[in-house]
Amino acid sequence: MHDLISISLPLAAAKSSIDSGDTAWMMVATALVLMMTPALGLFYAGLVRSKNALNTFMMSLGAMAVVSITWVAIGYSLAFGKGNGFIGDLHNVFLRNVTNGPRAGLHIPELVFVCFQASFCIITAALISGAVVERMRFGAFLLFTVLWSCLIYAPMAHWVWGGGWLQQRHVMDFAGGVPVEMASGFSALAAALVVGARKDFGRQAILPHNGVYALLGASLLWFGWFGFNAGSALTTGAQAPLAFTNTLLAPAATLSIWMLIDYLRGRKATAIGAATAIVVGAVGITPAAGFVSPMSAVLLGALVALPAYTLIVWRPRTRLDETLDVLAAHGLAGFTGILFIGFFAQASWNLTGNGLLFGSPIQLGRQALAAAAAPAYAFCGTFLLLKLMSLVARIRVHERDEGQGLDVSQHGEQAYTHGEGAILLHPEHVFELDHMETAKYSLPKSG
Hints:
Blueprint: H1 2-7, H2 9-13, H3 20-47, H4 53-80, H5 110-127, H6 138-161, H7 165-168, H8 177-195, H9 211-230, H10 240-266, H11 271-285, H12 294-314, H13 326-344, H14 347-350, H15 361-392, H16 399-404, H17 406-411, H18 427-442
Helix pairs in contact: 3-4, 3-5, 3-9, 4-5, 4-6, 5-6, 5-8, 6-8, 6-15, 8-13, 8-15, 9-10, 9-11, 10-11, 10-12, 11-12, 11-13, 12-13, 13-15
């Protein structure tokens, strides 16, 4: 999005009408990105225990619902309204002044642009659920996503794409290293600290219950990421083909390195590791997709595996229960991608600007500024938001509900049954049934 809005504007100004090819591509790209949120739900559901699988998926699906409405009500205006350097204005609240005509500087209807940007906000909010699965109340999480999308995501999107202070300083962020990846990763860290660890964390082994779900979800995420990155060109021209190619190469390189490290450490290439690697590589290339050469994308994919793998291995040895490693897979990988642009951006490929290795050392300083500001704002803002929410209402389930599993306690259903299908259960009734079942096997045998 960076290239079209800030660099290709003179080219776009020469043609104010809607381009049918660009419009068709952007509608397809929007659909691909929207698909990524259910794919994320599937990926996350496979990584948790079976008693929390439905709830984990529902957190992504619920975010898709409430963030969509929040986006058209106020989020879009705060992100892309003129406003000031920090945040947009209220010119487009409830889609006021938004038409089916072309958005200024683009060849696509503004309504399509609104939907494409909404899909980014949706999945970013849903990503944070990975830090608090298996213990945060469902309603509290949905309220959090509404507030977070307005207070954290919208300002950060404005910074880099809506004319904000980072865009004014020529920071390069093609598809969301600042408002998507670093925002979700460092917000996840804050959320994990405020909500606290699961009651079983550090006391017993907590293992993924379905590796196939995780692999399928990650694979669908990679597929959707072609719309995420190439769609961020907002046209079929410009950097779209480059971003598309780099979205293939970087995750492939990360996956290759990850399997190699797995093999060197344990003589086995793990399925959960492979699923994680796909996400890490796609995240790493997200901010750089339209700015670096294909071979630089391969290098980035290989490099980003190292810090992410290290953090994922180290984190369980601490008391931090950032459950599904959103910080490593998104925060740290996005941080790496943003800085990588400062070294490897190449004007001969992106028509935008060079990095340090191609004659522009100042670009590295600009990227470092973004890499410092985004984590700080996302972490502090999210920490404060959740602390304030916890003062008003309970954001974490009771310990008994956590032990029972959030599928039953939050939704009255179970992902897996031994009968003919799922049934709606009242949590108290399930507790009574479990108690009766335990008592039955505790009775002394007669005779």
